[in-house]
Amino acid sequence: MSTAQLNEKKAPYGILAILMVGAFISILNSTLLNIALPSIQRDLGVETSTVQWLATGYMLVNGIMIPTTAFLIRKYSVRNLFLTAMLLFTIGTVTAGAATVFPVLLGGRMIQAAGSAIMMPLLMNVLLTAFPVEKRGSAMGLFGLVMMFAPAIGPTLSGWIVEHYDWRMLFHFITPLAVIVLAFGFFKLKDKKDKVNIKIDVLSVILSSLGFGGLLYGFSSAGSKGWDSPWVYGTLIVGVISLILFITRQLKMDSPMLEFRIFRHPMFALSASISIVLNMALFSGMILLPMYIQTIRGISPFDSGLLMLPGAILMAIMSPVTGKLFDKFGGRVLVVTGLSITVASTYFFSQLTMELSYGTLVTMFTIRSFGLAMAMMPVMTNGLNSLPARMNPHGTAMNNTLNQISGAIGTALLVTVMSNRAATHGEELAKAAMSKATGQPSAEALEGLKNMAMLEGINDAFLVATFIAALALILSFFMKRARPAEDKFGKTEKDNQSA
């Protein structure tokens, strides 16, 4: 779809509405299953390490597919890509919902992921080509509503469904929604694309899959398997080597699968750096807080999800507002303010206790969500605004890929910090208890010590996350309002006619 076509008369709001609903469903699905994993494990009789593949496998397929979306968006029309993505997602959902054995469930989940991976970059690219730079903040604010609200309500919705129904209902209730969106897309999306004579480089796909897949698997496994596991350091080594070869090959190609030269644009490079660091800190709330709430405090999965719901609603409300403020004032003031709130609220979570009230947790999580809502989309939008139009598919693919990898790195780092510090605190608490007790502490006392040690480990991990978020805050002071740079042919964004 060309820029000229999209900007003719008015923005394609019908197309955007269909794409956004499809993206909402696919993103919602990515977090919907997490709370249901224990129920699935019991029902299908599999080990914890096996059932975790429902999350790990989904993430791996996303990490492998997303880098190819820059090529797919340039090659095929929005209609063809959307219908392919939704068809894959629907087939995967139906397969997973009908599964009675784990391999079928995992297969359905991975088919879902293949469709979902196309959806987000496709929607972002249409938004970038449909709106001029001065209105992109508002457009990306709507995108932020989808990106932030869908995964945030996932745990609440999932907790309620799992408590009242069989876990398969998580797929059954998504299925009719996916079918309706697919039907709307089939009848309403009419865009056409001129034939583009580009071919996928198979070696690039292989190197990309090994590189990004190896890094994602290695970092995502480090928290559970340990850094000394051959599977962890082996896949990380393969990932790093493959990624170096992949980048080298892309820089030598006239028409690369994923364009790394976009990092020559300073504002895009800066926004990518801030997003990477911010994503690493973001996962402290997504991973560590549920551990504290459910494992240590014994709060039910449904109530755990409810705790995060006000923050999710606030993020949904703030995203369009933040987008309009971005168009008016630029990104730096929003990002600096948002990250300051994020740093302060993340530090609060490094001071968790056994007595902290549920209301206080809800309030502080909501404040943290407010800060993230002010920072995340303005950072991404400002970076993408600095690219020529022909680089938009590469920019969106790169952002989504980096988000996946930085999330995995952040999770691995923070879970490792939590585990190591919990072990250290456990030894210290056990020694103190032994010195005070006349004999061996009771089983109940040992369980209490274990929870206290884990609590201190979580606090230490949140403290590390605070310093990570502070690094993103420092980087944000260097932001400047971005305008599209001239491409190597000397054309500005307005001169480029193809997305």
From TrEMBL:
Membrane spanning residue stretches: 12-33, 53-73, 80-105, 111-133, 140-161, 167-187, 199-219, 231-248, 268-293, 305-326, 333-350, 356-380, 401-419, 461-479
For whether the record's keyword set contains Signal, the answer is: no
GO CC, alphabetical: plasma membrane
Reply yes or no: does the keyword Nucleus apply. no
Highest taxon in the source lineage: Bacteria
Q: Which InterPro entries match?
A: EmrB-like, MFS, MFS_dom, MFS_trans_sf
Question: What are the alphabetically sorted keywords of the record?
Answer: Cell membrane, Membrane, Transmembrane, Transmembrane helix, Transport
Q: How does it sit in the membrane?
A: Multi-pass membrane protein
Q: Which residue ranges does the record assign to the Major facilitator superfamily (MFS) profile domain? A: 15-484
Pfam families cross-referenced by the UniProt entry: MFS_1
A GO MF label: transmembrane transporter activity
Q: Where in the cell is it found?
A: Cell membrane
- Indicate the family of this protein: Belongs to the major facilitator superfamily. EmrB family.
What protein am I looking at? DHA2 family efflux MFS transporter permease subunit
